[in-house]
Amino acid sequence: MPRKMVTKVCLALISGITLAGSALASSYTANFTGPGLDPSLYFLPVRFFDPSVDPTYSVGGDKLTLRDNSGGAGEANVFSHFAVTGDFRAKITADTSKLNGAGLDFAAFDSVLGDGGFSGITFPGGNIFTDGAANVGSTFNDHMHSYQASGPGHAGTVTLEIDRIGTALSVYDDGMLVNHADDLSLTHPIGFLISLCLGSCYPALPQGMPASVTISSFTITQPSSNIAEPATLAVLGPALAMVAIVRRRGAQLGCASPQQPV
Question: Fewest CB within 10 angstroms: 104, 118, 125, 149, which?
Answer without folding.
Answer: 118
